User: Which sequence fits this backbone?
């Protein structure tokens, strides 16, 4: 499939999905959300993809839903938009057993903020602002923001961002746990690449199982979590990557993980 609104670049196990509508600050239209869904399905099936990076072309990560495009298409209700276009993206990002990094190069607003929050890790330049902009037009946070935001920044800050629609800059985002790291804008691509390559060269099955287990632990009690850890560790212990990791440890060398 040839993509019109995103760029799909795979190199050394790192897939970079670039939101590519810079003239509208990478706002999502139907074509873009369809193409992101397709790209994630392709990435999940491809064993050579061992880490996924989301970023934006130009000066924005994403400004959210393209409201002008929405009006032009005569779309009125939001139910089908969320169920058919956004929710599948968020669920795939969380369920894909490969690490997903958000490389936040500029403003992340509305659904663009939600997409950033759905990533496993976020590395930001010193330029972005994160805005739960929905309230500014009389809407509520969607596309997973209501789930991820309070878990990342706490209830009070999540409510403040949702009620006011005020922007959170990169430094504040770091201090409240919204992002993992902030780097100068000119260093963002290199810093993202370093982290993505490190994860792509890691034990992909173990990383995927850790992601699955931690996701499940968000809705389980301690006893259930302990039981699920048993399952996950048994599964990880049967992988080729575990055998390689153990051999490398005993032989005092760097492991060569294959992601299997």
Assistant:
């Amino acid at each position: 499939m040839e993509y019109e609104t995103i760029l799909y670049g795979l190199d050394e196990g790192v897939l970079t999905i670039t939101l590519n509508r810079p003239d509208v600050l990478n706002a999502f239209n139907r074509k873009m959300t369809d193409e992101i869904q397709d790209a994630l399905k392709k990435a999940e099936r491809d064993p050579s993809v061992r880490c996924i990076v989301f970023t934006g072309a130009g000066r924005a990560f994403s400004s959210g839903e393209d409201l002008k495009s929405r009006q032009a298409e005569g779309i009125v209700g939001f139910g089908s938009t969320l169920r058919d276009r956004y929710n599948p993206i968020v669920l795939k990002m969380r369920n894909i057993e490969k690490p997903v990094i958000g490389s936040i190069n500029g403003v992340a607003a509305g659904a663009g903020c939600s997409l950033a929050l759905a990533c496993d890790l976020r590395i930001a330049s010193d330029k972005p602002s994160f805005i739960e902009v929905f309230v500014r037009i009389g809407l509520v946070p969607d596309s997973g923001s209501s789930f991820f935001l309070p878990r990342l920044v706490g209830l009070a800050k999540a409510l403040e961002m949702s009620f006011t629609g005020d922007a959170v800059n990169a430094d504040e985002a770091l201090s409240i746990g919204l992002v993992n790291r902030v780097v100068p804008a000119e260093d963002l691509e290199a810093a993202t690449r370093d982290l993505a390559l490190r994860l792509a060269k890691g034990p992909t099955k173990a990383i995927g199982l850790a992601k699955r287990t931690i996701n499940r632990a968000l809705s389980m009690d301690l006893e259930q979590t302990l039981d699920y850890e048993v399952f996950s560790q048994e599964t990880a212990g049967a992988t080729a990557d575990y055998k390689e990791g153990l051999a490398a440890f005993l032989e005092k060398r760097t492991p060569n993980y294959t992601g299997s």
Q: What stands out?
A: The mean pLDDT is 95.
